[in-house]
Write a structure and sequence with these properties.
One of its GO terms (biological process) is maintenance of translational fidelity. This protein has 578 residues and is of the alpha/beta class. It has 18 helices and 21 strands. Strands 2-1-3-4-5-6 form a 6-stranded parallel β-sheet, sandwiched between helices. Strands 17-18-19-21-20 form a 5-stranded mixed beta barrel. Strands 9-12-13 form a 3-stranded parallel β-sheet, with helices on both faces.
Length: 578
């Protein structure tokens, strides 16, 4: 079957027309060439065949799709949006990869292992003859890699068009949409925030407040995919939060490549956004801030301390340091020194008592000496970070750091092990045994033995699996601690506090299906035409309505051809009988 060249980017899917597709004049001519033939048939078998499309059917909207996402919470949010749109259109989202007709692989480009998993999944899908659509930062950053040839790609800012890409892929076309969202030439944050989505956890909403960043870190491949900073307007983010709470969400995560830089491109700031958001957080619900780099939080320290002390905001902040050596930080082009990082941490620990500071460290960056590494070790020993993400350096293709002289692999591995040993030498929660804490229960533990909750400082607390606790605030007494968790026993006479929000959606249920959207999906042609009239033509919902309209038109054509055949047959029988 003919397909679009993968080396040529298509302006729009509507440009693709297969040479085998019949044209209107061909259909009209075919009607005149019909020769009716009377035959007996098994009516029961015929009806069964009519109700079940053939196994090789390419009718879009009836296939099963398996979605796999790697990487950060921003990527997970993108995956949830894509799943929601596909499910709203009629596709079935399945957790069984082997049962799926199409695999949607949403990739991460931060480290080599993540891309290796992505590449291996593509190979496996090809071996199993699955249709494939690729998404995420890997194909966005390097779409012309050999192992991506011939495969459909949906860009990180084009996720609102995932239905179109999947539809064309199922038909046998190879489609690539990698463009940027712009308004009057200005880059936007990405696809609309009010699209349907399927939350992995119905109690947690992940909101991407901006895409891209203002940095140019020499090791970072994500910058090649997400680009420069582009922020969503405050009112759109607040509306998304309101909608989430109306659907039973009790915890919101704000995410981006750098939340601290939010708003600098549109004349606002992170504190301005946060003050608007806390106004709409219902009692009993919580807000968690995402990662922020030190340079962009320095000028907002006073305001950030006030916000992190708010009762509905977790006293938690993720501030990557990457290295405690100024020499290494300079080679990384991190735009801050260790003193800046310490100033941020010390200020927040003083103004927000008990705050949890999480950080990241890269071991074995090119040029890192033993002395540089020992400075990083001393920083960890001094601050005893309760949450520490230790990463061995991986040179990513196309980055400046990949061209630098590399440290031997065994040295990088040893430094990673040494720092991990330091991290595991202390227990950050031992002193909290005996405390009474209020925790918000949101999920089940990996071993399915406990429910997972978080206290005021976003510290993990395991509680008994009582179904009445899920999505609720519970008061517990801490009786045990581990490296990454505490265990809490619910207080016998304590009241289980229910947040002042709606009942959460069922797992797998599509979020954001407004009445308008439901009408477009559920009604027939007249209703579809009516509801789509006032919708911008670029919106995903109007395109879905258009696809349904085409389907109805096709059915109408088949019906008319069938009636014509019956008329000819009737005329033929009358002539024979006479």
């Amino acid at each position: 079957m003919p397909s679009a060249s993968c080396d040529t980017l298509l302006d729009d899917i509507e440009d693709i027309v297969s040479q085998e597709d019949s044209k209107p004049q061909d259909r009209h001519f075919a009607r005149k060439q019909v020769v009716p033939k009377v035959r007996r048939r098994n009516t029961q078998k015929h009806l069964q065949e009519e109700n079940s499309p053939p196994s090789d059917s390419t009718i879009p909207g009836i296939q099963k799709i398996w979605i796999r996402t790697w990487g950060c919470s921003h990527n997970n949010s993108d995956g949830e949006y894509m799943a929601g749109q596909l499910a709203a259109y009629g596709y079935k989202i399945t957790e069984n990869a082997s049962d799926a007709d199409l695999w949607l692989l949403n990739s991460c480009t931060v480290k080599n292992p993540a891309e290796d998993h992505f590449r291996n999944s593509i190979k496996k899908a090809q071996e199993e003859n699955k249709k494939i659509v690729l998404a995420g930062c890997v194909p966005q950053a390097q779409p012309r890699q050999d192992y991506l040839k011939g495969l459909s790609i949906i860009g990180v800012q084009q996720i609102d068009r995932v239905v179109e890409v999947v539809e064309e892929t199922i038909k046998g076309h190879s489609v690539r949409l990698l463009g940027q969202k712009k308004d009057n030439g200005k880059r936007l944050g990405g696809a609309r925030l009010d699209l349907p989505k399927i939350r992995k956890n119905p109690l947690i909403e992940i909101i991407s407040i901006n895409t891209g960043c203002l940095n140019a870190c020499t090791y970072c491949k994500t910058k090649h995919a997400r680009g420069n900073l582009a922020s969503y307007p405050i009112d759109e983010l607040v509306d998304r939060a309101k909608q989430s709470f109306q659907e039973g969400v009790c915890e919101i995560w704000l995410t981006s490549e750098d939340t601290g830089a939010y708003g600098r491109d549109i004349g606002t700031s992170l504190p301005a956004l946060l003050w608007k958001l806390v106004e709409v957080i219902p009692e009993g619900a919580m807000l968690r801030l995402g990662m922020t780099n030190p340079p962009y939080i320095l000028e907002h320290l006073e305001e950030m301390a006030k916000i992190l002390n708010h009762p509905r905001v977790y006293a938690f902040l993720h501030i990557p340091v990457q290295s405690a050596s100024d020499t290494v930080l300079m080679d990384m082009k991190r735009e801050y020194c260790v003193a800046d990082f310490k100033r941020v941490v010390d200020f927040l620990k003083d103004k927000v008592p008990g705050i949890t500071i999480a950080t990241d460290i890269i071991c074995g960056f090119p040029g890192e000496t033993d002395q540089d590494f020992q400075e990083t070790v001393k920083l960890v020993e001094e601050y005893k970070f309760p949450s520490l993400f230790i990463n061995q350096f991986y040179p990513r293709p196309g980055t400046p750091a990949a061209k630098m002289e590399q440290i031997p692999a065994q040295v990088k591995k040893q430094r990673t092990k040494d720092l991990s040993r330091v991290f595991h030498s202390y227990n950050p929660y031992d002193h909290k045994i005996g405390e009474r804490q209020q925790v918000l229960v949101t999920e089940e533990s990996f071993d399915s033995k406990f429910y997972v909750a978080h206290n005021r400082f976003y510290e993990q607390v395991l509680v008994p699996k009582n179904p009445t606790f899920m999505g609720k605030m519970v008061e517990v007494d801490i009786y045990e601690s581990g490296k990454h968790f505490m265990k809490g026993q619910p207080v016998s006479d304590a009241k289980v506090y229910t947040p002042s929000i709606s009942k959460p959606l069922a797992k797998g249920e599509v979020s954001g299906l407004t009445e308008e959207f439901r009408n477009r999906l559920g009604n027939h042609l007249n209703s579809i035409a009516h509801t789509s009239a006032g919708t911008p033509p670029d919106s995903a919902s109007s395109r879905i309505a258009l696809q349904l309209q085409r389907l109805h038109q096709d059915c109408a054509l088949r019906l008319s051809v069938g009636l014509a055949l019956l008329a000819l047959l009737f005329a033929f029988l009358v002539k024979v009988c006479n």
